[in-house]
Specification:
mainly alpha, 19 helices
Length: 328
């Protein structure tokens, strides 16, 4: 399946380049190939094509939000936000722009502002599953698990896709309801049986259920298997190494976990996924200095205090010696 994906990406790249050979003023073709390069981690190429698209057609919302999102991924957040705000002024009735800006706000820990944007999207389309899902995530980040659950349930009734199921599972995981969390992660994995992220989440739930600890080992072994397969296809995706690090941490192979994070950080060291994975390792190492460092980074970015304390893997943060960092 991963080989097929690589072939598909190669074909898509070739088709976009062929289209540009025929018409080098097609902003949509520049956006399409820019998105392909973004998705495979070739951000310099992605920005080159997306900037070209924006120059050709400044009134194409797709080029604006894709360009802004890519700048966010490479850490140029001020540039990204300026593009989003400019797009909102140009397209004040376009719900997709509000949705994209809401996602940017969520990624950068501005959850109250994100909630306002997603609510605005729902004024346009009340049953927009992505907006419901993202709004639920934002409420989860601010610690309103009840509202988050209601929104996830509403989204799942419209369309039970794997992302909605996983997010519902994560809400239950954060609440300590591990069997319920596992139930939703299992459903997500049935929809995407080779998704090693879902495997890791399921393994996390099982490790807290005494009768399912062997199942946790089974799924973390599968995380290693499928993440290594993805690396063979594309070695430039940080996520693969981050989830390998989490799997190795589960098996207490901490030198391997740190080695994976060194590779991941060489690709992208400033994402919340990176900080979260490092914190998992630091807790396993019982390294207070690293725990404090990565806790602060998470609190400065996407994570709220309530969500971080609720995470079952970070219960050490409730101990007296960490109160200063949690309540500064």
């Amino acid at each position: 399946e991963l080989t097929s994906l690589a072939n598909w990406l190669s074909d898509a790249e070739a088709n976009c380049l062929s289209s540009l050979d025929k018409n080098d003023r097609s902003s949509r073709s520049y956006v399409a190939i820019g998105a392909i390069y973004r998705d495979v981690g070739q951000y310099t190429k992605a920005l080159e094509y997306l900037e070209k698209a924006a120059q050709i057609d400044g009134f194409d919302y797709a080029s604006s939000i894709t360009l802004a999102g890519t700048y966010d991924l490479v850490g140029k957040k001020d540039t990204a936000e300026k593009i989003y705000i400019r797009a909102l002024k140009k397209f004040p009735k376009n719900w997709r722009v509000y949705s994209a800006y809401g996602y940017f706000l969520t990624r950068n820990g501005r959850h109250e502002d994100a909630i306002k944007n997603y609510k605005y999207v729902l004024e346009f389309i009340p049953e927009n599953i992505n907006a419901l899902n993202n709004l639920a995530i934002s409420y989860m980040y601010v610690g309103d698990f009840e509202m988050s659950a209601k929104l996830f349930e509403k989204a799942s009734l419209i369309e039970a896709d794997s992302a909605v199921l996983v997010n519902t599972g994560t809400m239950y995981y954060s609440s300590g309801h591990f069997e319920k969390a596992a139930f939703f992660y299992e459903r997500a994995l049935k929809l995407e049986p080779n998704n090693y992220q879902w495997m890791a989440y399921l393994g996390d739930s099982y490790k807290f259920i005494p009768s399912r600890k062997k199942d946790a080992d089974y799924y973390f072994n599968d995380v290693i298997k499928y993440a290594l397969q993805e690396i063979k296809v594309n070695k430039d995706i940080a996520r693969s190494y981050q989830y390998l690090a989490r799997a190795y941490t589960h098996f207490h192979e901490l030198p391997k976990a740190n080695e994976m994070m060194e590779i991941a950080d060489a690709i992208n060291a400033t994402s919340t996924e990176s900080y979260y994975s490092h914190l998992r390792i630091a807790v396993a190492e019982k390294n207070d200095g690293k725990i404090l460092h990565y806790t602060r980074l998470l609190l400065e970015n996407e994570y709220s205090l309530k969500l971080l304390i609720a995470d079952p893997d970070f219960q050490v943060l409730k101990e007296e010696r960490f109160k200063n960092v949690m309540f500064d």
